[in-house]
Structure to design on (1138 residues):
C-alpha cells in the first residue's frame, strides 16, 4: 500500500498508539489504564491493516481486544483492591532512567541495521496463512497449543478452594 | 497455597421501588457474587393500622376496610369478616345468600390467581406476554363484579347476614358464557408455560419447601398445597355450603415454585367447576337476613377462617356488646407465608430470589394491613 | 367439619401432658401458665391424640388490666382446632415466652404483636418492630394509646398532641 | 453470475445502485483534487448503507414494528396514537429521548460514562461495511469480511462493560459482569458455527459466499441447519435479547448496565441494540439464507430489495423469541453454552469437514451431491440435538405438568415413588 494517504494514516496511528501507551502508564485509575491498553491494541491492529495483513489485523482485534482485555478486566474486578490507583513509588526516578536507556538501545539498533526491503506487495491471504500454519509450521503450532492447555489447567489448579482440594483427598 | 478468589459480599436492596416486588415491599439481599447469602425483608410502607381504626367504627362500617387489606381478593375478605361477625352474633344466612357468596368468592379466586400467575411468569422474565393474557381474562371477571357490586376491585358487596343486593338478571348468562370459555384459555396458558423448557428450568427445584417446614412455618394456601399437604378449608371446614359442591384439591410434588404454579393453575379449573354447580343449583328466596345497622353482638370472641386465594384468611373478632368490635385481628396469609423467605432464597442466585418471591404471591396491602 | 375443642377438653389435654400448666379455663379457651408454655405446646404438638402441629393464628389483645396472647392451633390429620391463651398483668414491660422453638412460623406473628402491643417475647431470634419504623414512640394497638384526638401525627417524631391530651371515655371490659 | 434482465449501465437503473454511485464518483473525480474521491466514496457508502437502510429500519422495524408485533402477541394493539397506525411513534420516541434530561450520578466515572455510548455506536456503523446489498453493491468487499464482522461484534461488549462499571451502582455492576461473562462464552460457539460455513465455501468474503449459494442454488442453512441454529442462539445471546437478556434483566437487576442512563444516552443504547440485531440479521441472511439472491429472481427484482425483505424476516425471529420466551439464569446460560452449544458446534464442524473432503475428492465438486449432504445434515442435526440433550440428562417425560388431585382434606400426602428421579 503506497500513496500519501497511507503515510498520513501511519503517522496518525503511530501518534495514537504512543499516546495510549503513555496513558496506560500514567493514568491513576486502573480501569482507565485498561481502556488505554485497548486503544493501543486497536492502534497495532491499524498497523497490520497498513501492512495489508488484513487477517492479522482482524485476529488482533478479536484476540486482544475481544478476549485478553476482557480477561484483564475480570482480573481487576476479582482482585480485592481493584480500585487502587497507580500511586507514587520511590522507584519512579530509577524506572524512568532505565526506560530512557532501553529506548536508546532500541533506537540505536533500529538505526544501525540495514533492513532488507521487500519490493513486491506481500498481500498475505488468509488461506496462505492457514496452509503455512498447518503445513510448514505445524510443529510449533501444536507445541503452542499444548503449552496453552497446560497453562490453563495450571491456572485452574492454582485457584482451587480448600473444599475442592479436600475432594481430591477422598477420590 | 495462594488464597482462593475472595469476593466480599455486599447488600443490594431489592427495594420498595422495584419492578418485581408486587408493590411496596423491600428485600435486603446480602449477595456474594451471584449467590444470595442472606435475605431480610423490610415491610410497613403500606401500614394503615386497620386493626386500630376498626375499633372506632361499627361492625358494618368495618366492611370496606376488609376490601382494602388484600385489594386483589376483596370478596374473600368480606366473606371472612362477615362469617366471623355472624358466628359472634349467631346470625344465619339464607340459602341464596350463601350460594351467591360462594359464586363471588370463587370468581374472586379466579381473578386473583390470574394476577398471581401473570406476575409470577413476569418474574421469570417472560416479557409480559402471559401477564397480558391473564389480565385479559381477569377483565371479564371484573366486569361481572362491576355488574353486581358496582366496583371492580374493592367491591364491598357482602354484608353481615348475606349480600348487599341480589345479582342482576344478566349476571347469570354472562357468567355461564365466561365459564364456557375459561377452561379453553386455562389449557392454552398451561400449554404455553407448563411445558416450556426455559420456564421449567427457571422454576423447577427453585425455593423448595419441605412439607414439615411448610406445616411448622404455618404456611397456607398454594404454598402449603405445593409442598404436598392436602389442606383446603373449603373441604376441611366447609362454610357457606361448600360441602354441597364436589371439587378436588390439587397438591404438588416437592414444594418448589413450579409446583405452586401448577397448583394455582389447577385451582382455576376447580373454581370454574364450583361456580358451574353453584349457578345450576341457585336457590330462590331472600339474598340476606335483616340485621340492625347498630349491631351489638353479645360479649365473646369468634375466629372464622376462609380459604382465600393466598391461603387461610382468618378474622378474630372480640365483642364487648359495644357498637364497635373490642378487638379486630386479621390473619394475613401473605405475611405468614413470608416466614420462610430466608429458607427459600438463601443459597440460590438473585434471579431465584425474585422467582421465589413471585411464587409466594404476596399482596403488600395484606402484609402491612 | 373442624371440631372445635371446648375449654375443658383443652385443659384436660394440657393437664394430661404437662401437669400444672393450666392457669384457668373459660368456655372455649384455656389459659396456660407462662412458665411452662413452651413445654406444653411442644407436648401438644408432638402428642398423637391432640396433634396440634399447625399454628394458625397468634395475636395479642389488651384488656386494660392485662395483656393476652391468643394462639389458635390446628391439626390437619385430626381436623380439630384449639384456642389457647396466655396472659400477663404487667403493664409497662409485659414479657411472655416466645413459641418460636415450637412453631417456626410464629416469629413473624410475634414480631407483629411486639410491634403493636410492646409485649416482649424472650427466646425470640430477632424481636424487632416490623410494620412501624424503629423510632416510633409507643405501641399503637394498646387501648390507652389514643388514635384519634391528640394522638400522634404520622411523620413527626414527638407527640404534638401531648398538650391537648384528654382522658378517653373509659370502657372497662369486665370478665 | 447471471446477467441482469435488460441490464443497462446508465445511472437511473435503480436495480443496481452501484451504477449511480460510480457515476457520481467518476463525475467528482474529474473536478475534485486527488484525495477527495476516497472521502466521497466513504460518505456515499455510509449514507447508502446506514442512513438509507439501517436507520429507517431501526426506527420502523425495530421500534414500531417490534412494539406492534409484541403487542399483537400479547393480544393488544401496539402504539397507534401518534400518527396514522402509530407510524410517527418512533419519531416521537426519538424526540422525547433527545429532549429528556440525561442525568449523571455524582460518584460516577464521568469520562468513561460519556465515552460508553459513543463506543457502543461506532461498531454498529462499522458493521455495515462488509454486508453485500447487491451484485456489486458492497461498501468494502475485503477478503476477510467474516473475521472483520466477528472482530467488530466483540467491541460493543466492552462498551457495555464500561457503561456498567462507570455508574458506580450495584445493579449496573451486576449487568456489566453478566454481559462480559456471557459474551465470552457465546463467542466460541458463534465462531465455530461460522467456521463450518467457511470450510464449505472456501472463502471468508461474504460476497463470495452469496455467489457460492447462487452457483449451487442451495442456501447454506439447508446444508448446515445445526450451524444456523447455533448461530441464532449465540447471536441472540451476544445481543442479549430474550431468552438471554440477563444483562438488563428488568425483573432482577432493574435495567442492568443501563440503570443510570437517561435521555439520549439511553436512547443510543436502545437504538443501537436494534442496530446490532439488524446487523446480526443481515449477516445471518447473507451467510445462511442466500444474501441478495432468490434463485434467479434477482434478475428482475432489485437485489437489495430481496435482501432488505429477508433481513426484516430474520429480525422477526428475534421479535418472536422476545415475545414468547422467559429468561434463563446466568449459570444455566453458561452451562448451556459450554456443555451443549460448544460440543454441538464441534460435531457440526467435524461433519462438515468430512463432507467437504468427500465432496472435493470423491465427487470432484459437482452439484447434486450438495443436496445429498443437505438431507444428511438435517438428519444429523436432529439426531445430534436430541441425542446430546438426552446425554446431559434431559428427560422431558419425567416432569409432571399436572398436580395430584385429592378429594379429602388432611395432612401430608407422600409422593408415590415415580419411575426414577428425573433431572
Amino acid at each position: 500500500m503506497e500513496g500519501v494517504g497511507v503515510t498520513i494514516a501511519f503517522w496518525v496511528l503511530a501518534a495514537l498508539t504512543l499516546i495510549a501507551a503513555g496513558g496506560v502508564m500514567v493514568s491513576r485509575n486502573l480501569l482507565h489504564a485498561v481502556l488505554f491498553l485497548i486503544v493501543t491494541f486497536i492502534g497495532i491492529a491499524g498497523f497490520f491493516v497498513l501492512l495489508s495483513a488484513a487477517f492479522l489485523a482482524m485476529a488482533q482485534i478479536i484476540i486482544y481486544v475481544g478476549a485478553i482485555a476482557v480477561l484483564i478486566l475480570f482480573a481487576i474486578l476479582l482482585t480485592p483492591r481493584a480500585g487502587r490507583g497507580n500511586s507514587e513509588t520511590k522507584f519512579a526516578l530509577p524506572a524512568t532512567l532505565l526506560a530512557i536507556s532501553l529506548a536508546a538501545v532500541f533506537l540505536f539498533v533500529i538505526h544501525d541495521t540495514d533492513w532488507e526491503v521487500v519490493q513486491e506487495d506481500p498481500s498475505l491471504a488468509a488461506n496462505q496463512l492457514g496452509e503455512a500454519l498447518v503445513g510448514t509450521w505445524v510443529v510449533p503450532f501444536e507445541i503452542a497449543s499444548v503449552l496453552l492447555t497446560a497453562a490453563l489447567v495450571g491456572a485452574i489448579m492454582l485457584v482451587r478452594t480448600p473444599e475442592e482440594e479436600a475432594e481430591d483427598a477422598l477420590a | 497455597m495462594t488464597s482462593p478468589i475472595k469476593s466480599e459480599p455486599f447488600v443490594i436492596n431489592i427495594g420498595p421501588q422495584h419492578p418485581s416486588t408486587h408493590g411496596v415491599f423491600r428485600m435486603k439481599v446480602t449477595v456474594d457474587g451471584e449467590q444470595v447469602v442472606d435475605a431480610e425483608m423490610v415491610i410497613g410502607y403500606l401500614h394503615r393500622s386497620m386493626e386500630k381504626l376498626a375499633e372506632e367504627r361499627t361492625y358494618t362500617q368495618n366492611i370496606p376496610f376488609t376490601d382494602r387489606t388484600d385489594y386483589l381478593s376483596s370478596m374473600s375478605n368480606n366473606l371472612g369478616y362477615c362469617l366471623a361477625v355472624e358466628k359472634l352474633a349467631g346470625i344465619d344466612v339464607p340459602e341464596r345468600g350463601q350460594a351467591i357468596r360462594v359464586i363471588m368468592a370463587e370468581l374472586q379466586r379466579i381473578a386473583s390467581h390470574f394476577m398471581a400467575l401473570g406476575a409470577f411468569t413476569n418474574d421469570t422474565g417472560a416479557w409480559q406476554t402471559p401477564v397480558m393474557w391473564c389480565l385479559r381474562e381477569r377483565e371479564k371477571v371484573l366486569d361481572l363484579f362491576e355488574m353486581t357490586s358496582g366496583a371492580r376491585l374493592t367491591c364491598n358487596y357482602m354484608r353481615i347476614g348475606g349480600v348487599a343486593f341480589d345479582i342482576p338478571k344478566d349476571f347469570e348468562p354472562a357468567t355461564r358464557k365466561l365459564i364456557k370459555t375459561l377452561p379453553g384459555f386455562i389449557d392454552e396458558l398451561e400449554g404455553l408455560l407448563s411445558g416450556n423448557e426455559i420456564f421449567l428450568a427457571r422454576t423447577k427445584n427453585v425455593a423448595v419447601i419441605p412439607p414439615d417446614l411448610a406445616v411448622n412455618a404455618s404456611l397456607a394456601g398454594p404454598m402449603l398445597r405445593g409442598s404436598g399437604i392436602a389442606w383446603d378449608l373449603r373441604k376441611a371446614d366447609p362454610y357457606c355450603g361448600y360441602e354441597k359442591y364436589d371439587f378436588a384439591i390439587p397438591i404438588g410434588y416437592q414444594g418448589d415454585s413450579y409446583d405452586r404454579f401448577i397448583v394455582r393453575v389447577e385451582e382455576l379449573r376447580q373454581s370454574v367447576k364450583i361456580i358451574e354447580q353453584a349457578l345450576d343449583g341457585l336457590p330462590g328466596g331472600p339474598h340476606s337476613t335483616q340485621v340492625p345497622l347498630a349491631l351489638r353482638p353479645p360479649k365473646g370472641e369468634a375466629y372464622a377462617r376462609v380459604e382465600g386465594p393466598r391461603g387461610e384468611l382468618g378474622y378474630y373478632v372480640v365483642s364487648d356488646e359495644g357498637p364497635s368490635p373490642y378487638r379486630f385481628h386479621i390473619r394475613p396469609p401473605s405475611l405468614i407465608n413470608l416466614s420462610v423467605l430466608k429458607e427459600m432464597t438463601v443459597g440460590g442466585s438473585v434471579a431465584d430470589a425474585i422467582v421465589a418471591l413471585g411464587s409466594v404471591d404476596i399482596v403488600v396491602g395484606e402484609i402491612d394491613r | 367439619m373442624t371440631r372445635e375443642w371446648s375449654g375443658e377438653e383443652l385443659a384436660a389435654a394440657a393437664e394430661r401432658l404437662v401437669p400444672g400448666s393450666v392457669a384457668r379455663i373459660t368456655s372455649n379457651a384455656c389459659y396456660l401458665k407462662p412458665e411452662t408454655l413452651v413445654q406444653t405446646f411442644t407436648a401438644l404438638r408432638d402428642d398423637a391424640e391432640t396433634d396440634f402441629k399447625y399454628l394458625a393464628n397468634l395475636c395479642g389483645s389488651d384488656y386494660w388490666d392485662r395483656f393476652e396472647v391468643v394462639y389458635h392451633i390446628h391439626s390437619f390429620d385430626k381436623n380439630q382446632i384449639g384456642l389457647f391463651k396466655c396472659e400477663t398483668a404487667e403493664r409497662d414491660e409485659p414479657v411472655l415466652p416466645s413459641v418460636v422453638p415450637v412453631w417456626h412460623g410464629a416469629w413473624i406473628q410475634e414480631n407483629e404483636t411486639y410491634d403493636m402491643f410492646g409485649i416482649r417475647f424472650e427466646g425470640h431470634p430477632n424481636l424487632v418492630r416490623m410494620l412501624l419504623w424503629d423510632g416510633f414512640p409507643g405501641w399503637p394497638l394498646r387501648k390507652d394509646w389514643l388514635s384519634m384526638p391528640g394522638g400522634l401525627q404520622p411523620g413527626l417524631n414527638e407527640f404534638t398532641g401531648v398538650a391537648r391530651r384528654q382522658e378517653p371515655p373509659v370502657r372497662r371490659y369486665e370478665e | 453470475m447471471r446477467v441482469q434482465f435488460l441490464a443497462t449501465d446508465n445511472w437511473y437503473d435503480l436495480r443496481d445502485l452501484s451504477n449511480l454511485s460510480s457515476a457520481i464518483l467518476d463525475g467528482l473525480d474529474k473536478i475534485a483534487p486527488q484525495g477527495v474521491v476516497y472521502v466521497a466514496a466513504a460518505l456515499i457508502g455510509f449514507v447508502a448503507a446506514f442512513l438509507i437502510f439501517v436507520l429507517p429500519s431501526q426506527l420502523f422495524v425495530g421500534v414500531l414494528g417490534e412494539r406492534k408485533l409484541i403487542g399483537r402477541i400479547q393480544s393488544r394493539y401496539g402504539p397507534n396514537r401518534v400518527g396514522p397506525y402509530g407510524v410517527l411513534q418512533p419519531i416521537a420516541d426519538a424526540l422525547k429521548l433527545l429532549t429528556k434530561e440525561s442525568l449523571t450520578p455524582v460518584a460516577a466515572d464521568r469520562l468513561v460514562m460519556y465515552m460508553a455510548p459513543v463506543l457502543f455506536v461506532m461498531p454498529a456503523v462499522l458493521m455495515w461495511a462488509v454486508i453485500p446489498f447487491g451484485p456489486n453493491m458492497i461498501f468494502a468487499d475485503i477478503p476477510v469480511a467474516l473475521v472483520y464482522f466477528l472482530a467488530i461484534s466483540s467491541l460493543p461488549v466492552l462498551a457495555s462493560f464500561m457503561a456498567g462499571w462507570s455508574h458506580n451502582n450495584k445493579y449496573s455492576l451486576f449487568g456489566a459482569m453478566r454481559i462480559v461473562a456471557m459474551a465470552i462464552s457465546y463467542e466460541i460457539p458463534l465462531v465455530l458455527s461460522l467456521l463450518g460455513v467457511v470450510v464449505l465455501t472456501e472463502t471468508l468474503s461474504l460476497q463470495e459466499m452469496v455467489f457460492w449459494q447462487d452457483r449451487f442454488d442451495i442456501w447454506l442453512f439447508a446444508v448446515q441447519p445445526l450451524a444456523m441454529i447455533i448461530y441464532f442462539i449465540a447471536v441472540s445471546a451476544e445481543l442479549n435479547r430474550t431468552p438471554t437478556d440477563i444483562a438488563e434483566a428488568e425483573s432482577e437487576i432493574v435495567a442492568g448496565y443501563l440503570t443510570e442512563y437517561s435521555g439520549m444516552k439511553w436512547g443510543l443504547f436502545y437504538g443501537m441494540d436494534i442496530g446490532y440485531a439488524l446487523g446480526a440479521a443481515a449477516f445471518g441472511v447473507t451467510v445462511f439464507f442466500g444474501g441478495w439472491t432468490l434463485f434467479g429472481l434477482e434478475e428482475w427484482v432489485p437485489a437489495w430489495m430481496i435482501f432488505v425483505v429477508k433481513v426484516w424476516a430474520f429480525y422477526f425471529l428475534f421479535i418472536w423469541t422476545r415475545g414468547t420466551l422467559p429468561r434463563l439464569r446466568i449459570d444455566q446460560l453458561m452451562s448451556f453454552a459450554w456443555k451443549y452449544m460448544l460440543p454441538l458446534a464441534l460435531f457440526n464442524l467435524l461433519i462438515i469437514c468430512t463432507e467437504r473432503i468427500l465432496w472435493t475428492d470423491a465427487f470432484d465438486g459437482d452439484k447434486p451431491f450438495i443436496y445429498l449432504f443437505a438431507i444428511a445434515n438435517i438428519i444429523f442435526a436432529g439426531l445430534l440435538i436430541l441425542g446430546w440433550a438426552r446425554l446431559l440428562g434431559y428427560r422431558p417425560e419425567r416432569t409432571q405438568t399436572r398436580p395430584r388431585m385429592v378429594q379429602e382434606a388432611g395432612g401430608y400426602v407422600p409422593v408415590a415413588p415415580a419411575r426414577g428421579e428425573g433431572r
